[in-house]
Amino acid sequence: MKIASLLRSAALVTAVALIPTATATMAQVDGRAGPEFARLFTVFQKVKASYVDKVEDEVLIRGAIDGMLAALDPHSSYLDGAALQRLETSLEGNYSGLGLSVILDQGAVKVISPFRGSPAEQAGIKAGDFITHLDGKLIYGGNLDDAVAQMRGPAGTSIQLTIFRPGRDEPLELDVKRGVITLEPVSSELQAGGVGVISVNEFSGNVGTEVFTAWQSLKKEAGGKLNGLVLDLRNNPGGRLDESVALADLFLKSGRIVSQRGRARGETILYDAESVFRGDMAEGVPIIVLINAGSASASEIVAGALQDHRRALVMGERSFGKGSVQALLPLGPDSALKLTTARYFTPSGRSVQEGGIKPDITVPQISDPDYARRQKYQTRESDLRGHLINELGIKDEEMEKDTIDDPRFRLTADQLKEQGVEDFQLHYAVETLRRTTKSAVALRVPLKK
After folding, report:
1. Which of residues 209 and 89 earns the better pLDDT score?
2. Residue 30 pLDDT grade (very low, low, confident, very high; cuts 50, 70, 90)
3. Which of 26, 221, 315, 341 is the most exposed place for a label (fewest CB within 10 A)?
4. CATH number of the domain within which 155 lies
5. Which of 73, 129, 242, 308 is catalytic?
6. Which among 76, 72, 83, 101 is positioned nearest to 13, based on CA atoms?
7. How many angstroms separate the CA atoms of 284 and 227, rounded?
């Protein structure tokens, strides 16, 4: 029943595509790998017979499976028991915990991003932070699933996190009260001058429909017409591949949205516009897509599609760079294999893997007082051990940070705060739309609340 319920949902946070196991391919592997399996079994027997302590078969088999998958890429893993249960609750988008997206980076638990409005974000945890202790207990070198399990718990209970923040000399001790994490996939706000902002926080079910509804509400609030739209995909770790296609389709009238290419012939799938929604719902309205290093997978599909079709200006910082698709393969009633089976490509044929989406206009988040320090330790797909290599090749200079001092971005966080600017990237995007629309002077009239 547990596997069945997982298969009914596609809302995995790393753009998982659910596909059946290729039996013929498995048979070929069995025939060729006989001598290697014999060597593995010999090692198993030697450890059982000669290791200093008695070792259970389950421990050795699980270790062999984990080691096998660790040799592939960071997104392939074996799930059973509690790990499978945690995945199932994440799919439902409703659990008690802190609201963090984390990875294991060379033995350390590293924060990719806190969810918007989560207890973690409210406590001040930021992307790039390293969690070293939970309730005073060292978790470095441990298992990521164990660390996640400890951070989850009943709503209202507290846990102490010891945080190492790059650029700071002393660790931070933060007491965080767990809450019910009910992810709000889409939120919206009307800014002064008739500029709408739609934030997509993760790609769960019905995101495309919810963005359409948000657009209609913003138009009504603005008196029937919007002068610009900011589509905010920052710190969005991804989700359902079909919902990323649906979102892009809202703004495209023709052409390719994304292509998925695997090793097997049947794993190549093409996704085109006009397959989910008809027409461009915001035709004639200028759009800016905001991304950053926390924008991954499905977020990159949307940004890449709108950028390649020149439907939107992409602004912010280079995205995470996760251009692979995972399949969930059941192994029994209580276990499954999450396996990378394909790469995806933007309409122009660009692979997102490693390089991510490069913004048309790079805008740093200078309203964050820790921005410069944390940038040195920012984690992307290309930083993960064992990541897939971009088979199209990426020139080194394309992945290097522009170190030119831009005069537009010299204000400090304190100076921006004095001006009332708490989110510089969003502020810059909205101001850009106001400057580029026809009646620029009228757009500067403050919005009446």
Report:
1. 209
2. low
3. 26
4. 2.30.42.10
5. 308
6. 101
7. 9
